[in-house]
Amino acid sequence: MNVLIIGGGNMGRSFAESFLNAKILTHKQLTVIEKDHAQIQELNRMKLGQVYNDYGDYIADKDLIILAVKPQDAYSVYPKLKPYIKEKHIVLTIMAGVQITEVEQQLGTNKVVRCMPNLPCQIGLGVTGFMVSASIPQTDIDFIRKLLETTGASIQLYEEDQLNAITAISGSGPAYIFYFMDAMIRQTMEYGFSLTEASKIVEQTFLGTVELYKVNNLSCKEWIDKVASKGGTTEAALKTFTQTDVAANIQKGMDAALHRSRELSKK
Fold first, then answer.
1. Are the CB atoms for 5 and 12 separated by under 8 Å?
2. Sheet holding 90-93, edge to edge
3. How many whole angstroms from its chain centre is CA 180?
4. % of the chain exceeding 70 in pLDDT
5. Is the pTM higher than 0.90?
6. Tens of pLDDT, residues 195-254
7. Which residues contact 32 (CB under 8 A, 6 or more apart)?
8. Phi, psi of 81 (to 5 degrees)
9. Beta strands of the chain (E only): which ranges?
């Protein structure tokens, strides 16, 4: 399958690098369109496929076209891309809040995949939720899943509102984790540790905890019970979290993200 990525920014470049490193695509099978001169130089330096700065007839031999551009740039991309769209083309969009029907209408196609990757996709540890148009054959869906899984885990969804939920969970999720980590790092520094020391302590605490969770079948609640002995330090912290509704506030924040994702999808 020949793949065209429109947009060589962080996510487009991450996709290109992942596809090639996994040897799912060869250099000749991958093409990138990028306008920015500095980005073009970087793409060429990294040898991430064939790079063009404009649309052209070469698009005809592509099978999958990935729209790795920001939602606000969509309306400058649609009219330039539409003349080259053929019946065989599958269009995959990572534009947050842009519904499948809009892409279908704007490009005159009924083969669209909408997906929501997250930031850790850049290091192969991401989560990508994706949904496909009904007209896309299963063999193509399987290949697209294989491509997406070069950047981490993937999950196929069957209702577009689930993509809004994925946005609120894994799409925005890294920021929630960084927020919690930042609070812990700042408090650790209050205890007399340097920024470097505090960052390493908190980083390793998160890494170790996630790995423990992955290699065992215990729930989060069961792990909490293992750490928090009665009358101990952990119990004291957890009581404060409970009294100040930390869990409820996290859930409210996720609800706010979901609500905003739904609002953006209606625009």
1. yes
2. 50-52, 30-33, 3-6, 64-67, 90-93, 112-116, 126-132, 152-156
3. 20
4. 100
5. no
6. 999 999 999 999 999 999 999 999 999 999 999 999 999 999 999 999 999 999 999 999
7. 4, 5, 6, 8, 12, 16, 43, 48, 49, 50, 51, 52
8. -85, -35
9. 3-6, 30-33, 50-52, 64-67, 90-93, 112-116, 126-132, 152-156
Q: What is the DSSP letter of 141?
A: H
Cα angle: 1, vertex 116, 44; to 5 degrees: 50
Q: Which CATH superfamily is domain 173-266 in?
A: ProC C-terminal domain-like (1.10.3730.10)
How many residues comprise the chain? 267
Integer CA distances (angstroms), 142 to 116, 123, 148, in order: 17, 22, 10
Phi and psi at residue 210, to the nearest 5°: -65, -40
- Which residue, 141, 122, 121, 119, is CA-closest to 131? 141
* Tokens 């496929």, residue located: 49
Q: Which residue type sits at 211?
A: E
Domain edges within the chain: 3-158, 173-266
3-158: CATH topology: Rossmann fold (3.40.50)
Amino acid at the residue 44: N
Half-sphere exposure of 162 (CA within 13 A, CB side): 12
Angstrom CA distances, 140 to 14, 165, 254, stand at: 21, 25, 33
Please name which of 105, 247, 240, 117 lies closest in space to residue 176, comparing C-alpha atoms: 247
Contact call for residues 39 and 66 (beta carbons, < 8 A): no
Residue entry with tokens 């009924």:
110
Low-confidence ranges of the chain (pLDDT < 70): 267
